[in-house]
Inverse folding.
């Protein structure tokens, strides 16, 4: 598939982001999207063909592979990339709504349609919460589906139609483990960045509200 739409989406949201948000965009684009396209697809490209069991019973190898790899690493990570990026559409839609509202009324309703304040601030905060939530959910999925971020060299399978307990071998396990740890590290970094930006925006808004009340009180 083409990842151009995701690149354009991240570039568009970058206009309304804080400094921390721009770092998040850079991490997603450079350390996740480009790494996925350049490296990850090649590592897991032939994972089914390279999965071998020491028995030629028809169907045994397929059943064992499906048991140990219920969802492909590469497809799950692609889904994760899409899910953690789509909440940014909320911000884009909200800005588009403001701009269309000004055109409809033919007057200036906002200081700047793209300024993160009021309703747009709430939308931005919701997008940060959703992105963080998706990151945590996918980390949990990876942990549960792949036995704690491990890729063993040898797995034993006794599922039907296998005649008995058979040994199955996973190709390039060390390479896959290293990449899996990289995936987890970048996800954790994105969670930290999202929480930092969320805290920064809430703190900034709280200080702004306090100063307004302080000024009114003394006036």
């Amino acid at each position: 598939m083409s990842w151009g739409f995701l690149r354009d989406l991240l570039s568009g949201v970058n206009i309304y982001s804080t400094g921390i948000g721009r770092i998040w965009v850079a991490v997603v684009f450079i350390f996740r999207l480009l790494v996925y396209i350049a490296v990850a697809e090649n590592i897991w490209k032939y994972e089914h063909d390279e999965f071998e069991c020491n028995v030629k019973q028809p169907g045994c190898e397929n059943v064992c592979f499906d048991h140990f790899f219920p969802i492909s690493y590469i497809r799950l990570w692609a889904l994760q990339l899409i899910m953690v990026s789509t909440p940014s559409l909320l911000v884009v839609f909200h800005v588009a709504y403001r701009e269309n509202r000004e055109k409809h009324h033919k007057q200036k309703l906002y200081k700047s349609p793209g300024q993160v304040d009021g309703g747009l601030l709430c939308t931005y905060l919701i997008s940060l919460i959703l992105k963080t939530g998706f990151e945590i959910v996918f980390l949990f999925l990876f942990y549960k589906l792949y036995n704690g971020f491990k890729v063993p060299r040898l797995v034993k399978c006794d599922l039907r139609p296998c005649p008995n307990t058979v040994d199955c071998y996973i190709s390039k396990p060390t390479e896959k483990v290293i990449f899996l740890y990289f995936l987890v590290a970048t996800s954790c970094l994105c969670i930290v960045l999202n929480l930092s930006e969320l805290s920064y925006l809430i703190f900034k808004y709280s200080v702004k509200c306090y100063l307004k009340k302080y000024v009114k009180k003394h006036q």
Remarks:
- The two ends are 60 Å apart (CA to CA).
- The chain has one domain: 3-218.
